[in-house]
Amino acid sequence: MLPTLSRRTLLQALLATTGAAVLPFSSRALAGSAASWHNWSGNQSAAPKQLHYPSKASELSQLLVNSTGTVRPFGGSHSFSPIVPTEDTLISLEAFNGLRDQDDNGNLTFGAGTRLGAASAQAWQAGYSFRNEPDINLQSLAGAIATGTHGTGITLPCLSGQVAGLQLMRPDGEEVTLTAADGDAFLAACCGLGALGVITAVTLRADPAYRLREHTWTLPLDEAIDFVNANRHRYRNIEFFAFPLGRTAIIKTMELTDSAEEALEQDDSNDLLEKVCELSLRAPWLTSTLQKLVTLFVSDEERQGPAHRIYANRRTVRFNEMEYTVPADDGLDCLREVCERIRDQDINVFFPIEYRYTAADDTLLSMFSERAGASISVHQYYKQDYQPLFDAVEPIFQRFAGRPHWGKLHSLDATRLRSLYPRFDDFLALRREFDPEGRMLNPYLRRVLGIETGGRQ
């Protein structure tokens, strides 16, 4: 199969391994019926007693007032951690969507359930671009900022750091507006894990519309690490995808361009990628060979166009993911150790490791709170047991003072997380103020925030 692949086709297939299109949740089960929910990869599910799809703030307020037990909102269902599931009440933000307002300073207000791809396209039509975006763009805005979702660029913030204002519905049904003038309450809500209430609208700071030129090519893994180390400050956006077993890497950079020329075409090779993953699953002894073939079939390519079109890639091949963010200056050393561990233990994983940079912000709980970070993401094909891979590399992340992505798999509890976040206890105090009865807390949030069931909230 592999010798027949075109260089362009394999490139798109390999880039597709680092993310996944968040498919809209299609069930429209009515509250009180046999409701069910599952996330995109299928590793998280729930059978709540109530599943609601409110279409306006007044309906949401009544739902919160009248519901009992735990309430959890969900958007694109792309989190791999158990941040959403509850046996009680799930609330979809799907109907809270679209551009609602804009001002002359580039502040754009969207319904919180708006998918990032739709929001960035609407921003472009209004003459703006978001300062940075991830390469998966079908998450809801509320879910993306709640978990610290990010793109790459050492001077560029995560989505939580681009928030100018929020509309937040407290568990008691009261809707409040939060901006920077509200101090720590705003900074907590910008990456609030859905623990303060339900976000109904998000205002993002945007830049005048800009265009990007993307350059993608391959190098041997050691050379790629050296290149990124030497050039991380040179490019607006830089990331790379490391194949530890094949000792190869794909590098991707983006720079601003004034050219009006568009070269946006991408081959859709997700079906091909699925076949390669299946082959690796059934014949693990071929995985290192498949990874080595990357440099034979991936060509040096460029494309350019509107920023939101360049950031995004179509993802359909499912996986499960662990991501930790370590101090930016320690990132490449940490990556080297992760690659060595995978090789030493001969762990069968075809998906590459994704490596990105993000600027520090002043939110209380984003992975970049008061510290610029290097994010290292490991993925395992959804049909494979991810535990051997994640168990092998997580101790390395922890030794480098890594902070886990809130929407991705990890094993840390509140004791360890408190040591990683200078303002952890400030967040807890604000959470108690917004939700004194702990209505928004499911078992995952109780574990990571250190709140016992039935204890002091």
From TrEMBL:
| InterPro entries reported for this sequence | ALO_C, FAD-bd_PCMH, FAD-bd_PCMH-like_sf, FAD-bd_PCMH_sub1, FAD-bd_PCMH_sub2, FAD_lactone_oxidase-like, Oxid_FAD_bind_N, TAT_signal
- Matching PROSITE patterns: FAD_PCMH (PS51387), TAT (PS51318)
Look up the domain of life of the source: Bacteria
Tell me the GO molecular function terms. D-arabinono-1,4-lactone oxidase activity; FAD binding
User: FAD-binding PCMH-type domain: which residues?
Assistant: 44-209
- Which keywords does the record carry? FAD, Flavoprotein, Oxidoreductase, Signal
Q: Which GO terms describe its cellular component?
A: membrane
Indicate what this protein is called per its UniProt record: FAD-binding protein
Species whose genome carries this gene:
Alloalcanivorax xenomutans
Phylogenetic lineage: Bacteria, Pseudomonadati, Pseudomonadota, Gammaproteobacteria, Oceanospirillales
